[in-house]
Amino acid sequence: MKWSQAFISTLKENPADAEIVSHKLMLRAGLIRKLTSGTYIYLPLGQKVLNKVITVVREEMDRAGAQEILMPALQPAEIWEASGRLKQFGELVFQFQDRTGKKNLLGPTHEEIVTNLVKNEITSYRQLPVTLYQIQTKFRDEIRPRFGVLRSKEFLMKDAYSFDTDEKGLDRSYQKMYEAYCRIFERCGLKYKAVEAETGLMGGDVSHEFMVPSPAGEDLFVTCPKCTYASNINTAIPGRPTNPETTNNSLNLQPLQEVKTPGTTTIEAVSQFLKTPPPQMVKTLIYLVDNQPFAFLIRGDHELNPFKLGRLLGTENIVMADAKTIEKVTGGPLGFSGPVGLKNIKILADYAIASMTNFVTGANKTDAHLINTNLKRDFQVERLADLRVVVENDPCPQCAAQLQISRGIEIGHVFKLGTKYSKSLGASFLNEKGQSHPVVMGCYGIGLNRIIAAAIENSSDQNGIIWPNQIAPYQVIIISVNPQEPKINETSQKLYESLQAKNIEVLWDDRNISAGIKFKDADLIGIPIRLTVGKNMMEKGLIDIKQRGRSEQKSFSFDETVTETIRLISG
Q: Are 147 and 19 in contact (CB under 8 A)?
C-alpha cells in the first residue's frame, strides 16, 4: 500500500480524554476513532492489526480441536432469566422490548445461548466431547467506560465452550484451552502471566486469568519470585503458621482493660490516640450473611476479602450491616465494635489473629476500646479461616518467600463451569447405560481488542508503538526521503514490488512531505522494519535498514536489502 493512497490519519498531540499509553497511541497512530462513550471505529491500520490477532486466535482454536460457530448478539431475555443471571448482571445488560413486547438483550456473553444450542443438538455420550467457539461482538453498559478499548461498551471476544460427559473430560478440555491460550499470547508477542482467579459472574469452581503486567492494568495479581505461585488478588492466599489453631499462650498476657477513646472510630484514629500500631489491633466487622449477623475479625492493617467470604460461606448474599443493626447486635455504636461479650452471633477470625496477643479491640461502648485482649482467654471464635486480602511481602503459601503484587491487564480467562448452566437450562445426554446426566461445561474467553491495547502497553516508547512482528499492520515501511528525485523514486518502486513479490506486507511512504515528518509517523505507527531510500542511495547506492525500537542502522545494496529484510521478518 502506498501511503499517498491509504486512509491513514495520525495526530501530533494526545487527545484530552486519553489516559493511558495504549489509548493515546491507538488514537494518535490512526488505529481507532471514538464514536461516542465506550464505542470506537477501527480505521484501516487498526483493522489490519485486529484481523491478525483474529487469525492467530482462530488458528490456535482450530489446532486445539475447537469448531467455529457464530451466535446472535441479539438474545431473548427468557433464557437469561432461566439461568438466573439476568438479575446478577443487572444494569450491565442492554435490555429492550421489540415491537411485539418481547424482552431482548444485547449479549454480554453467550453461555446461555450455547447451552441452549447443545441442549437441542446433543443427546448421546457418543456426540461428546465437543468444543465450540465464536468470534463475536459483546455489549456491556459500563458505568464508566475508560482506557480506550480496555473498558468499552462494545468489544470483540473469542469465546469457546467445551462440553464433556464428566469432570475428567472437562480437565482434558480445560488443559487444551489453557495451552492454546499460551500459544496465542506468545504468538502475539505478549509478556503474560497465568494466575488463579475468582469465577465471578461466570460461575464454576476453577478459573485462571491471563494477565499482562502493566501500570495501566485495572486488576491486581500476586506472584512469588521463587516458585510458580500466582493468583488474582481476590483469590490469593497468604502463607500462615504450620499450626494456626494454636494461639500464643505465653506468660506475658496482660490483664484486659477498658480505656476511654473519645471520638476515635477508625483504626488510624485509635492507633494515634493509644500509640499502638495497626498490626497490634483487631477490627470487628459486622455483616449480614443471608440476613443473619456475623462478626469477622481481621488485623488492623488488613482488609476483609468479600470474595473469600462468599466462597467460605457458600452464598453471595453478604452485605455490611448498617449502624442500627450494629448497635442492636453489639450494644455499641458503629466504630467501637469488638468480640468480647458478643452473644447470639457467629464470630469468624482471620488466621493472623491466632498468633496475636495483648491486642486492641472495640469495647462495644461509645468512646471505649479494650487493650490487652486475647483470643480464647477473653472470647471464643467459631472458626479461624483465611478472610483477608493479601498484602505485599506476605509469605508465599507454597514456599514462604515474600509475595509481590503487580497491576495487570486481563486478556483471557478460562473457567471450569461444571453443570451450572446445563442443569438450569436442561442440557443433558444419555450415557452408555441409557441414563440421563447433565453435560459438564468449560468456558474460555479472550478479549481481542484487549490484546491490541496490551501489546502497546507492553511495547512502546516516547516515539510511538513498537509492534510485535506477528500482529503489526505492515511488516515493512519504505521511506522515500525525496520521492521527486527519479533515482529515489525508481529504487523505492522496485523495492516495493520486490518485497510484495515475496509476500511481504509493505507500506510505502511516497508522500511529498519532509523526511522528518515521515520518520516521526513511521515511529508512531510502529512498523517493525524501516527501509530508507535517501542520501545513501544517491551517494553510494545503499538502502538503510533500521528495526523499530533499536538505535542501530545498517546499510545494504539493493539485493542485500531484500535478503536482509526477509531474514529479519523470519526472525
A: yes
Does the pLDDT of residue 244 top 50, yes or no? no
CA atoms 474, 476, 481, 486: torsion sign:
negative
- Confidence band, pLDDT 50/70/90 cuts, at residue 316: confident
Topology given in CATH for the domain delimited by 248-385 = YbaK protein (3.90.960)
Where in the chain is CATH 3.30.930.10?
12-236+406-456
What single-letter DSSP state applies at residue 514? -
- Kindly give, in sequence order, each residue whose CB lies less than 8 Å from that of residue 309, ignoring residues fewer than 6 positions away: 287, 289, 296, 318, 387
d(CA 40, CA 32): 6
Neighbour count for residue 222 (Cβ, 10 Å): 26
Mean per-residue pLDDT, 160-165 = 98
Q: Where in the chain is the domain with CATH 3.90.960.10?
A: 248-385
Handedness of CA 340, 344, 345, 349 (dihedral sign): positive
pLDDT tens digit sequence for 61-103: 999 999 999 999 999 999 999 998 998 899 999 999 999 999 9
The reported pLDDT for the residue numbered 202 is: 46
pTM above 0.85, yes or no: yes
At residue 241, the pLDDT reads 61
Contact 408, 193 (CB under 8 A): yes
Grid cell locating 414: 478460562
Among 61, 48, 33, residue whose Cα is nearest residue 472:
48
Inter-helix orientation angle 558-570/486-501, to 10°: 40
Instruction: Give the pLDDT confidence of 293-315 residue by residue, as tens digits.
Output: 999 999 999 999 998 998 899 88
For residue 297, CA distances in Å to 39, 189, 195, 331 come to 44, 45, 28, 17
Architecture in CATH of 12-236+406-456: 2-Layer Sandwich (3.30)
CATH 3.40.50.800 segments of the chain: 474-570
User: Going by CATH, does the domain composed of 474-570 fall within 3.40.1010.20?
Assistant: no
Average pLDDT over residues 511-533: 97
Each residue of 181-203: b (16+ CB within 10 Å) or e?
beebbebbbbebebbbbbbeebb
